[in-house]
Write a structure and sequence with these properties.
mainly beta, 1 helix, about 5% helix
Length: about 280
């Protein structure tokens, strides 16, 4: 059965999101240990069930993103977390109504230690997406390593931080929204994100949704690729994308409150508009 424009639009948006092309990097807030040294990633004060982060993006792909941490557990050598990501996007180039993507993840995090990189790996991930005429349902997996957060590092102007790499895979089925009939599948087995060395800029005061904040601009190059994409029985070779990214990390709140992405002469801005604790679900 032939796939409609609506199916292609949904597939393109979901693939774009899950390949790591979204210009949003969730960077952790962390407490300080005695002596002024940052604690590990798993000991941060927000690492509790009920944390919610709201982000809004403008530009070619306007998007509203909500992150909710449902479960969190510290274990020897690291921690595990269950979280949800709800996003609503409207990719300008594809037109049409917004695409809604819901993700449920269970991850294992191993913080960086002296001489070793930090890493994060998915235990399980479920993806459920829908648009006007179609929906997708399936599973994803990813693994990342490198510098995964800023708050555990001593940051100062001119310092260069190491990068990070992510590898991910996605396998979903596509259904007609009206009838539930399966009309195709999509697989991306070798999607990747590579973040280059990151340079720390001068501390500046910027206006944020949470009020004026003194923040450090941290700039780097980000390369994303879907790899070979299998869609409706066809094998498509994707074209890698290159973005120049600036994270505005605000030490007083231990968080990146703004991210700016420059690509093909255009700039997209992502702002954190809410960062709070909700009552955890029973």
């Amino acid at each position: 059965m032939a796939l409609t424009y609506g199916h292609w639009r949904l597939a393109a948006t979901v693939a774009f999101c899950l390949a790591g092309a979204l210009p949003v990097q969730y960077v952790a807030a962390q407490p300080m240990q005695a002596g002024g040294q940052p604690a590990s990633l798993c000991d941060m004060p927000w690492f509790r069930a009920g944390t919610r982060v709201q982000m809004e993006a403008d530009g070619e792909m306007p998007m509203s993103i909500t992150f909710r941490l449902r479960q969190a557990a510290v274990q020897p050598g690291g921690c595990e977390a269950n979280f949800e990501i709800h996003s609503k996007s409207a990719m300008a180039a594809l037109k049409g109504p917004p695409v809604v993507v819901d993700q449920v993840h269970a991850v294992r995090i191993v913080p960086a230690e002296s001489g070793s990189e930090g890493n994060v790996e998915s235990i399980s991930a479920v993806v459920n997406a829908r648009a006007r005429y179609a929906r997708m349902f399936g599973e994803a997996a990813f693994r990342g390593r490198g510098v995964l957060d800023y708050a555990s590092m001593a940051l100062q102007e001119g310092k260069v931080l190491d990068g990070e790499t992510f590898e991910s895979a996605l396998s979903v089925k596509i259904y007609r929204l009206a009838t539930g009939e399966e009309v195709g599948t999509m697989r991306a087995e070798h999607a990747s994100v590579a973040v280059g060395p990151r340079k720390v800029g001068r501390l500046q005061t910027i206006a944020t949704a949470l009020g004026p904040q003194k923040c450090l601009p941290i700039s780097y190059e980000k390369r994303t690729s879907l790899g070979a994409l299998e869609f409706a029985g066809e094998r498509l070779e994707s074209i890698p994308t290159v973005m120049n990214v600036t994270d505005w990390y605000c030490p007083s709140v231990f968080f990146v409150l703004r991210t700016e992405v420059r690509q093909m002469g255009k700039v997209q801005r992502v702002d954190v508009t809410a960062f709070e604790r909700e009552e955890p679900l029973e």
